[in-house]
Write a structure and sequence with these properties.
Length: about 60
């Protein structure tokens, strides 16, 4: 389907040009879920991820619940 193909291609190009994806990968690689600070950070990162996904899908930001 051309629309989906074009959307995926655009997303892949964006991945190559934004800092969010590599930063998240680095965070997850060093995460210690036993550490209370990392537990809070994963909550914060989940909120950021929600906003990031909303931007990619809708071009808008999602508010945290």
């Amino acid at each position: 389907m051309p629309l989906i193909r074009d959307y995926i291609a655009g997303h892949e190009r964006a991945i190559d040009h934004v800092d969010e994806h590599p930063a998240l990968a680095g965070f997850l690689a060093n995460l210690d879920i036993r550490d209370p600070a990392d537990q809070q950070r994963i909550r914060d990162e989940a909120d950021e991820l929600r906003t990031h996904i909303a931007k990619e899908e809708d071009g808008c930001s999602a508010s945290a619940d």
